[in-house]
Amino acid sequence: MGSRALLLLAPATLAERFLVNHFPKYGFQQAFKRKEEMLRVGVRNYSVHSSLERPNVPRLAETARISLTAQEAEEFAPKIQQVVDWFGQLQDVDLQSIEPAIRADTEAGSFREDSPETFDKREAMIAAVPSYEEPYIKVPKVLNKD
Amino acid sequence: MKTKQQPHSNFTETARAKAVEKALKDFEAIIGIETHVQLATMTKAFCSCAYSYGDQPNSCVCPVCMGLPGALPVLNSKVIEYAVMLGLALNCKLSMNSKFDRKQYFYPDLPKGYQISQFDIPIATNGFIDLDLPLEFGGGHRRFGITRVHMEEDAGKLLHTGTGNYSQVDLNRAGVPLLEIVSEPDMRTGVEAAEYAAELQRVVRYLGVSNGNMQEGSLRCDVNVSIRPIGQLEFGTKVEIKNLNAFSAMSRAIDFEIARQAALYNEGKADEIVQETRLWEEGSQKTVTMRKKEGLADYRYFPEPDLPEVILTEEYVNGIRDSLPELPDMKRRRYEDMGLSMQDVLFLANDVNIADYFEATIATVPDIKLATNWIMGDIAAYMKNEKLSINEIKLSPQELGELIASIKSGTISGKIGKEILFELMEKGGTVKGLIKEKDLVQIVDPVEIEKIVDKVITNNPKQLEQYRGGKTKLQGFFAGQVMKESKGKANPGILNKILLEKLNAKS
After folding, report:
1. Domain extents in chain B
2. Structure confidence at residue B379 (pLDDT)
3. Are the Cβ atoms of B311 and A108 closer than 8 angstroms?
4. How far apart are CA A28 and CA A11, in angstroms?
5. Does B63 touch chain A (CB under 8 A)?
6. A chain contacts of residue B68, beta-carbon cutoff 8 Å
7. For residues B36 and B218, what is the distance between their CA atoms, to the nearest angstrom?
């Protein structure tokens, strides 16, 4: 009775590869182990469905203020896509019954007392500013935020 | 609404008021306000640099607020405290767990290339604020919704030199903690919007979280205005107005915008109203287009990885709730219950310093009516003339109480009281001291007064004859002479009684 019950509870991912009534004679637990092995050995399947948006590389470069030639943009696009798809594997995780976390860390806040301290190397910082006209930092004229 | 402005041409004011009145017959104005409050903490939000307005440029900086590589932010615990105080004062629901996010864009006054803010989980949401409209605009109670309150940091200051192709950056202000308050679009007129802002100012000052000064930039308001034909459910196109430096400017800018949008509707050009940001020009008293934005900004928000979650405990929140001071609206209701008129209530409660002064005075002498009259009358006039705040006049509330008591008990006359008030406000001192020094005790002994009356009558036979001949108005003359003789100390009531007797005696 045990193994029949387990069959019914087999996770959806297994169903892709193995039809329930065609279970190999060594049982479902072994079948599961085989899938694990495949992943461990590095059989990466890059056609994993990614419901993440395809990155628009020229636009990304624009917003990040990194200049790319058209050729560079074309070259980078598939590489960026690969990284996105690699993360995309997380989309497969069943999150139905999981409460969303606000942050990934578990350590709660570390705070600072509200008491002033003067930074003692201010002159060095100012000296390192490439374009400084006492007492201001000199910048090109920009009128519109983007 | 109490800020002083240059007097504007009456024509423009009335013409605009008329245009708005007409517009509001056919249209409903939907107004929302975004307010940034600069917190009065000793240090910045994420580093220990001090901040004070007016410091030498780039003198209060460190690697964190200058955004130098490798520097990490550490949150100032006072910022959370002030955020919770304000959230509670605005009747909000607090997020017991919230986080910071990066709002990313490039601009010369933003050293890190992103602003640390709170995007989807602000520390407080869903609140409201109660206020009373000024009597000169019809009065009335209003409640406006508050959508959210969140914590963020300020950017530096960018100065544009008139000529030249460069600008100047001062990073003193970069990293100063701000609370952003977003209202529900509940306001319907410029007056309501201005009073909402004034009430926020009152609240932050009462709480002590900010000095809420629009001129200094510690209170900044941006207004969103749209109109829709009365009865229409769909909202019209929203226009944002920036560069408002006073509550009255807010009101006038909104009026202008309502009139402008209504005019376009009426000319069949409603589609010329576009979603944009306009600047209020104080000089020409109108809103003008900034360069139109091409699409919405993409800030690429993501959770700030360098800062941990902000977790509030029930204990912490309750502790703060229990220590909140009495808020302006509570005070106004309490003053109303004391029996004060709405006019008195608004005057006394609108400034927390005046309210404290008033309460200290009635703690000394529980005569509410007299205390109110003195504060709103002679004292307010003096403050206005000398351009002083109530904390700067030398008369202490305890001495005001003493003054009221002295007049009530008949020790000095009301007239003398008024005279020494001036000296007390200017030079300080005690009421008892002045009374003694200047020998001001009122004369109430009828025998004493009779002596003086007799003397005055004897010395003025001509006027006596005239009086008895029919010129009864001369009683005033005699009374004046008696007062002069007694150095103002004769009790007026008794004086006149005796005087009348004597004057009418031998007719």
Report:
1. 25-311, 351-437, 446-504
2. 92
3. yes
4. 10
5. yes
6. 125
7. 8
Per residue in A43-71, pLDDT (tens digit) is 444 444 556 777 889 988 988 899 999 99
B117: part of which helix (H) or strand (E)?
strand B114-117
Residues of B in contact with A142 (CB under 8 A): 107-108, 167
Is there a contact between B159 and A136 if contact means CB atoms under 8 Å apart? yes
Are residues A116 and B121, on separate chains, in Cβ contact within 8 Å?
Answer: no
Residue B495 has pLDDT above 90, yes or no: no
Q: To 10 degrees, the CA torsion angle through A24, A25, A28, A33?
A: -80
Instruction: Round the average pLDDT of chain A to a whole number and report it.
Output: 73
Give the C-alpha distances (Å, rounded to integers) separating B145 from B31, B32, B149, B222.
Answer: 12, 10, 12, 16
Chain B CB contacts of A52 under 8 Å are: none
- In this structure, which amino acid lies at residue B287? T
Q: Contact A119/B63, CB-based, under 8 Å?
A: yes
* Res. B394: pLDDT tops 80: yes
Number of A/B CB contacts below 8 angstroms equals: 122
ipTM of the complex: 0.76
What's the pLDDT at B295? Answer: 59
**In this complex, do B49 and A136 lie within 8 Å of one another by their Cβ atoms?**
no
Q: How far apart are CA B18 and CA B10, in angstroms?
A: 12
Distance CA A39, CA B469 (A): 126
Per-residue model confidence as pLDDT tens digits over A100-113 = 888 877 666 688 99
pLDDT digits (tens, 9 = 90+) for B122-145: 999 999 999 999 999 999 999 999
CATH number of B446-504: 1.10.10.410
